[in-house]
Amino acid sequence: MDFQIRHAVTENVKGDGPEQFRETIQDAISRGDEHLLPGLGVLLEKWWQNTSEEEHSKFTEALAKAFQH
């Protein structure tokens, strides 16, 4: 992923609250535009870097279940 994308996304959401993040994520998903996927990846990367191993396990378990269908 291009560093400029990380920087742009970070600057765009800096200071956002939980509801704004929810809206950003829901909007990106509902649009279905593939060019928005790197931005969601930046959000995931930041979340991953700032959460515990327990949260990582819960998340990866949920992903595994979601992709079993």
TrEMBL record:
Domain of life where this protein originates: Bacteria
A Pfam family that the UniProt record links to this protein: SSPI
Predominant cellular place of this UniProt entry's protein: other
GO biological process: asexual sporulation; sporulation resulting in formation of a cellular spore
Induction of synthesis: Expressed only in the forespore compartment of sporulating cells.
Keywords on record: Sporulation
Localization per Swiss-Prot or TrEMBL: Spore core
Family: Belongs to the SspI family.
Protein name stated in the entry: Small, acid-soluble spore protein I
Originating species: Ureibacillus terrenus
Source species taxonomy: Bacteria, Bacillati, Bacillota, Bacilli, Bacillales
